[in-house]
Amino acid sequence: MAAYSFTRPQYDLENAASYTSIPDQPASASSTPAGHWRSKKLLAGILFSSVFLLSLILLFVNQQSESQTKVNGTNQGKSSTPKPISPTARTAPPSRGVSQGVSEKTFRLASVENATYSWTNAILSWQRTAYHFQPEHNWMNDPNGPLFHKGWYHLFYQYNPDSAVWGNITWGHAVSKDLIHWLHLPFAMVPDHWYDINGVWTGSATILPDGQIVMLYTGDTYDVKQVQCLAYPANLSDPLLLDWVKYSGNPVLVPPPGIGAKDFRDPTTAWLSPDGDKWRITIGSKVNTTGISLVYETVDFKTYDMLDGYMHAVPGTGMWECVDFYPVSMSEINGLDTSVSGSGVKHVLKASLDDDKNDYYALGVYDPIEDKWIPDDPKLDVGIGLRYDYGKYYASKTFYDQNKQRRILWGWIRETDSEYADIWKGWASVQSIPRTVMFDQKTGSNILQWPVSEVEELRSEIVEFDNVKLGPGSIVPLKVDTPSQLDIVASFEIDEDAFEGTVEADAGYSCPTSGGAANRGELGPFGVIVLGDKTLSEGTPIYFYVTKGTNGKFETHFCADELRSSLAPDVDKVVYGSKVPVLHGEKYSLRSLVDHSIVESFAQGGRTVITSRVYPTRAVDGAARVYLFNNATKVSVTASVKMWNMGSADIRTFPLNEQ
Ligand code: DQQ
């Protein structure tokens, strides 16, 4: 194989025809006359601040190097003296992207920032995931431009090379043979042109029929406008796609009239127009508070025509970020390439709502002639109906994997602990385990998401528990070897008599407002508790809660309760969840992937999904336990569980110099 070098193409700074040049920094204010006393005070102040600042920096550097010694996947943190996060360090949160046209990137609950838990380095180290994709250090957000090329899966991602908070957004790049083990490559694109100097933001890849790869991304310009830019691999025969060329005519699109300069971002993968001679892309935006998707047509990805109107718009949903648009087959389980259209196909339209930071999707029908997408059920339109994930999951993106004929979904999962803890540990955010997406042929009204089968390569010892009887109010500990790294598959059956004898139970129930798993009803909750300690002073229940309305209709809710997930006050603790269809003859089934501070849970084969971030203080490493529980007051439950210990993914830097 050819030797790979780290050199990337040098880009010339270009002049923009339609933009004025970058203004110089304002000249510093001319000095005002000052008295002797004042200068002395100033000098003393400067001296004091410098010493203070220096000691802070030394303290911080010391902490940083300690917390960064752990290599991804090993999670062998040793216990150390508790080191409280300095109260001084709490007073000034690092700056965010608001001024740069995106909203706050951490969006934690307000109370979190004021609390004072003394995290130890060992626990912070434990929080790092073992088989989810993470860069070694620093901040990561949206997945970008995923694709399969010459035997490698490529993942690009929003990355800050400088720190564990959002900023200076660069495209990180990693490759994998199996979507689980990853090799980090040099950055694909850095903010180095006037049109993306404030950030190489989110984008998508399109693979053309002749094998060319087109990457469209949003550039945040020197004057904080959002524009779309074109890039392509310098050498298509390179399986690693190391070098990326930014098109000399960038930007290829600027905000059209009537669209705010900060409301125009995240181009999708392109699909072919009905006559097959043009490509279409959609870009999210808003008009007042209506979320919209604009559509452009192009032949060469350099010049574009905007189509009239919007492909779709939903009043009250605000700015649509990271729009995704793709077909799903109504009869086959394989995924479809993005240009597939016609009978037997539904189209998913997804928007990441900037206002509430959740990913909403809807199933509908695309009319390529009119270029309009119509939701199957207007009550479940984009932004007001179904979500990909009812926990923490945002800015997701799918791609068609031509290698295995499936559609794969990636999503960004942020931290929900204190921002100061993130700075301390030196990293923030993970990517979800990639999920296959398909139409749910049984319900016809939702998609199914399921972890890619490759994750099962990491399964080792299995422990099985069959037909465990759980009377009302019971809890059963389950013995496992690696409680922080598990793949749990569980099913539950309800005692039919109690079920039928119920007149009405908890009509109007909703996971988020329920008070969590401690709240008992006739027919729920029942499920598993992960990352619990011996006395259950900590634990995260993942569970079902069945209700019966006055109309005699049973409904099932799938919830994840973080309320007791940690004794630390400075982490978000939320009860997540939503309804999940359970069809006649089906058991209540769940799967949870536990990987240190993340728990991804799938109900009924992936109809409803919840991702939690949890930060226990006691239920870590060998002290963590798994339980089965039934906290219902009336119904008995029979549970069967399979649990696999999960190994660690091999995630490291690509040995380019050894090629
Ligand atoms: N993240 C990117 C934007 C996108 C946002 C900036 C979504 O392109 O809208 O980092 O998280």
From TrEMBL:
Localization (cell): Vacuole lumen
Transmembrane portions of the chain: 42-61
An individual GO BP term: carbohydrate metabolic process
Keywords: Glycoprotein, Glycosidase, Hydrolase, Membrane, Transmembrane, Transmembrane helix, Vacuole
Domain Beta-fructofuranosidase N-terminal stretches: 18-124
Composition-biased stretches (Polar residues): 68-83
MF (Gene Ontology): beta-fructofuranosidase activity
Domain Glycosyl hydrolase family 32 C-terminal positions: 454-645
GO CC annotation terms, alphabetical: vacuolar lumen
This protein's record includes keyword NAD: no
Presence of the UniProt keyword Cytoplasm in the record: no
Protein name: beta-fructofuranosidase
The organism of origin for this protein: Olea europaea subsp. europaea
